[in-house]
Amino acid sequence: MLGPAKEIEGVLLVDKPAAHTSHDVVARLRGILRMKRIGHAGTLDPMATGLLVILVGKATRISQYLISLDKEYEGTISLGQTTDSQDADGEVITTRPVPPLTEADLRATMKTFIGDQYQLPPMYSAIKINGVPLYKKARQGEEVEREPRFIRVVSWELGALALPKFDFRMRVSKGTYVRTLAHDLGEKLGCGAHLSALRRTATGSFRIAQALTLEQIEALSITDLEKHLISPLAATAPAIP
pLDDT, tens digit, for every residue of 220-232? Predict the structure, then answer.
């Protein structure tokens, strides 16, 4: 694909691959489209896959409206081990036996997380304190005080269970760290846990079925790509009262 002759604008839904940061996806799209004015509305961790809402051209102005939308995920939690990053990308720091949990046990514990609450952000996060991302301090072995953040867990449903792992689906508010929920659930169960897989399936009314892979985008002409762009007005209609 050659870059656009004129600056295009709109919301592009991308299916982020694993082992890519959200910034990696933006950088690759800047190369594909030969445009600098590209951003995203809601970060995904490198391990996670799924829906990344990309803002192209003047659509970057609506970021504040789209970042605030609820997110939906599906994933897998591994019981019995905690990691320093709270997901499978981290180093194992504790190993504990997993009790013979039933589906009812898990559902009952997951239910205790439903609703409004404060969540302590993990050290391995992009949150900045005095201008320095927490993950940089974490890599140096530092643990710093951070403020809990208000979040809402709208739903958390149990999927397939095959101990020590189980699948789940959830809907949460902006700013929620799913891996921290996995970690905290493990602590409540007494055996520890970490997030071993995560896929974002929705952001607000946007669905992963609407998203394109980077390879699909690269193969499209600009004219065909524009057919997949959602106008800023249409994108924010559900978000602005």
Answer: 998 999 999 999 9
120 in the same domain as 31: no
Q: Which residues lie across from 202 on neighbouring strands?
A: 72, 207
Range of the domain at 155: 71-202
Q: How many domains does the chain have?
A: 2
Question: In angstroms, how far is the first alpha carbon of the chain from the final one?
Answer: 38
Give the model's pLDDT for residue 238.
61
- Residue 1 domain-assigned? no
Same domain, 156 and 173: yes
d(CA 223, CA 226): 5
Supply the pTM of this predicted model. Answer: 0.91
Task: Give the residue from 69, 77, 36 showing the smallest Cα distance to 52.
Answer: 69
Across 151-171, b (16+ Cβ under 10 Å) vs e yields bbbeebebeeeeeebbebebb
**Catalytic residue among 15, 45, 87, 89, which?**
45
Using DSSP's 3-state secondary structure scheme, residue 39 falls into: strand
116 noted as active-site residue: no
pLDDT given at position 142: 67
Here the tokens at position 53 are: 């809402």
For residues 84 and 131, membership in a common domain is answered with: yes
- Confidence tier at 237 by pLDDT (50, 70, 90): confident
